[in-house]
Amino acid sequence: MKRIALVLVAVAMVGVVAVWAQNSTGADAEPAPRSAKEVRGASPYIGVNDEPPAKLIVDDPLPDGLPEGIVWIQYRTENCRILPVFGKEALNLSPRVGHLHVRVDDLPWLWADTSDSNTVDIGGMPPGEHKVTIELVDATHRVYPGQSKTVKFTIPQSASGSHKDAH
Asked: Alpha carbon 49 to chain centroid distance?
């Protein structure tokens, strides 16, 4: 009888130890939240050695505005913050900074976009074939290598072509 009691106590102790070990290893605990650095990137107060290259990702124009002569082109960047910072001193900032140059239909002029709004918005486009070139440039307006993207689209003949009529 003493042996049976002793065996039962031993089995109970093994069960308690197993539950304690599972809880102490966090097997059923929620995963730890991702760090700020993992989500937001490096701190602007500490230089980043060997930064990966800047990258520009550009989507095709959203079809919704084209019948109204409006072009919305979404974009995002990697390894480059879009900020209104200019000059050669800004080339030493880390993480790196830049802005966009946007050109329509090979016109001789362009505009700089420093807003990081995630969408280039062009209104009043006339009907016909068009192209928009978006470049990711550094603080001295030099294009980051390979970071120029051109999208082509057609504004339908039925489009009003007037930005004021579309809004």
From this structure: 21
